[in-house]
Specification:
This protein has helices at about 5-10, 20-45, 110, 140-145, 175-180, 205-215, 230-235, 265-270, 275-285, 290, 305-314; strands at about 225, 245, 250-255, 275, 295-300. With about 325 residues, it is mainly alpha-helical. Among the domains are: about 10-45 and about 55-80, no CATH class; about 205-314, Roll (Flavocytochrome B2, Chain A, domain 1). Strands 1-5-3-2-4 form a five-stranded mixed β-sheet. The longest helix is centred in the N-terminal third of the chain and has 26 residues, at about 20-45. Protoporphyrin IX containing FE binds near residues 197, 270, 271 and 283. This is Cytochrome b5 heme-binding domain-containing protein. One of its GO terms (molecular function) is cytochrome-b5 reductase activity, acting on NAD(P)H.
Length: about 325
């Protein structure tokens, strides 16, 4: 870095003086000529002196760009010299001074390696340099030169049927507008209500039945009865007779309950005069018939002989 005083000396330079510049230039030319003569005499060469090109300095003196000349600074500028014997500066110990480090290190392997090979051909600088990179493996690679069968094809998709997955039916091409107009409207299957409940008449709701059944005995028999199959068959709800049904061995008079049956009177009377346990359990095994029909209990189912015997005993 130049000393800061340089900047100062430039600012303190006197204004350019054409006479001073001219004198300096002439002095410089004289010195150069004397040097040339000295060199030529030393070489003993036969080369003739080059003709001096004379420039009419007087004519275009005013048009020349003023040149600055070194001038002595008006103030004392301290000078520094690395070679100077400065007692204030610490003397470098030449024994401890190491040569500047070089890279790579002298004992490294990298230094022993040969320089990288120079590219054979210059990289293209035209539009071809914008081409996509070469495919992999390279066309001249050993991998490509070897048997191409070593490159396995991608695995095929597993057969859906082998995985136990039902095959998806192929899509049909969309119908044209005319075909759509001719075609019947798409059938939208509304989910059929699985309920077969009937609309009960007012005053025949389950709550109405509960209150009625709790109020009185609806069996229409004077006492607990042993019902034989022949007796049961007569109570089928026809000809003004009550309808009796057997559920799990117990005989119930189902006639008072018929208008309250959510599944309808007809459904209930299918079991009239019979054992309705199987039908009942097929439709609604969760229904607690014992609690609902307690007031309708007639008796228990007995065999024909048992009924007779009991009657005889009575
Ligand atoms: C005395 C005996 C019976 C009693 C106490 C009884 C009672 C009931 C009750 C409480 C329901 C409503 C069930 C619910 O909402 O989940 C019902 C529904 C029904 N019951 Fe009975 N039932 C009897 C006998 C029968 C018999 C013998 C049949 C048929 C042969 C039958 C056919 C039906 C049907 C079809 C429904 C409509 C089920 C539905 O769609 O939700 N019931 N019954």
């Amino acid at each position: 870095h130049p000393p800061n005083t340089w900047r100062l000396s430039w600012t303190l330079l006197p204004p350019p003086d054409s006479k001073h510049i001219k004198a300096t230039l002439e002095d410089y030319d004289e010195k150069e000529k004397s040097q040339d003569r000295q060199e030529k005499s030393d070489d003993n060469s036969v080369v003739e002196d080059e003709p001096d090109i004379k420039v009419d300095e007087e004519s275009d003196d005013d048009q020349k760009t003023p040149q600055a000349t070194p001038a002595a600074p008006s103030i004392a500028v301290p000078s520094f010299n690395l070679d100077s014997d400065d007692s204030n500066m610490p003397e470098p110990d030449t024994n401890d001074t190491l040569p500047p480090p070089s890279f790579p290190a002298a004992n490294s392997q990298q230094r022993a390696m040969p320089p990288p090979p120079k590219p054979v051909s210059k990289p293209p600088t035209t539009a071809s340099s914008l081409m996509p990179p070469p495919s992999f493996p390279a066309p001249n690679s050993a991998q490509r030169a070897s048997n191409s069968s070593s490159l396995m094809p991608p695995p095929s998709r597993p057969n859906r049927s082998s995985l136990g997955v039902p095959a998806i039916p192929a899509r049909q091409p969309p119908l044209s507008a005319a075909a759509q107009a001719r075609a019947p409207p798409p059938r939208i299957d509304t989910p059929k209500s699985s309920s077969s409940k009937v609309k009960l008449a007012p005053g025949f709701s389950p709550l109405d039945w509960a209150s009625l059944a709790a109020s009185k005995n609806l069996s229409n028999v004077s006492s607990f009865t042993r019902v034989t199959p022949s007796m049961l068959a007569e109570k089928n709800g026809r000809k003004g007779n009550d309808a009796w049904s057997v559920y799990n061995g117990k005989v119930y008079n189902i006639t008072p309950y018929a208008p309250f049956h959510p599944g309808g009177k007809g459904e209930l009377l299918r079991a009239a005069g019979k054992d309705g346990t199987k039908l009942f359990m097929e439709v609604h095994p969760w229904v607690n018939w014992e609690g609902m029909l307690n007031s309708c209990l007639v008796g228990v189912m007995v065999s024909e002989s048992e009924g007779e015997g009991l009657d005889a005993m009575d």
